[in-house]
Amino acid sequence: MKIALFGTSADPPTLAHQAILIWLAQHFDRVAVWAADNPFKQGPNPQTGHWASLGDRQTMLKLLVEDVQSHYGTVQIWEDLSDRRSLISLQRAQQRWGLEPNYALVVGADLITQIPQWYAVEKLLPAVQLLIFPRPGYSIDQANLARLEQLGGQYQIVDQVGDQDITPAISSSIYRQTKEEELIPPAVQSYIEQKQLYEP
Predict the structure, then answer these.
(1) What are the residues facing 107 on neighbouring strands?
(2) pTM across the whole model
(3) What's the average model confidence in pLDDT over 37-44?
(4) Residue 42 pLDDT greater than 70, yes or no
(5) How many other C-beta atoms lie within 10 A of the C-beta of residue 76?
(6) Is the peptide bond preceding residue 12 cis, with omega within 30 degrees of 0?
(7) How would you classify the pairing of strands 160-161 and 102-108?
(8) Tens digit of pLDDT for each residue in 68-82?
(9) Beta-bridge partner residues of 75
């Protein structure tokens, strides 16, 4: 069994998140997704580094996942996997599904330079394959990939199938800057308006 683990800030979740989930659903037996706090984020909340609360981000992610689930039932929210430390999330997944499945940890290209600083990274990397997706404004540097390999990491860069990009060149930060509604699913936009999130 192949299981993809996709913890994301989802601040807010965008159509790029949706595209990643669809790709994962087409390549993995199970896709476990959750909203989490990234301890390296530097947002307006000094405690979490994020713009919206974890509860709001979990709710928005559920709205996005519900849309994907109409076509791909193997994609599911698992809030109990959420932790600031990816190793803890992996260990919780292993407690739920065992050690036998092949686990892949989904990360954006913006995290490549952070990963060597993660908690107990020398235990984490040998236990998963990193699936690296491109992010607007972030290049994938060979020296940083070599550093991951030195730490025991194996990785796959997922950017294209043939000539088609996997993910649109959008991100949560672009949405927060532009407020362009077409960057996120309508249900997520409605929730943002209802809760008055990301207001200046």
Answers:
(1) 132
(2) 0.88
(3) 58
(4) no
(5) 14
(6) yes
(7) unpaired
(8) 999 999 999 999 999
(9) 31
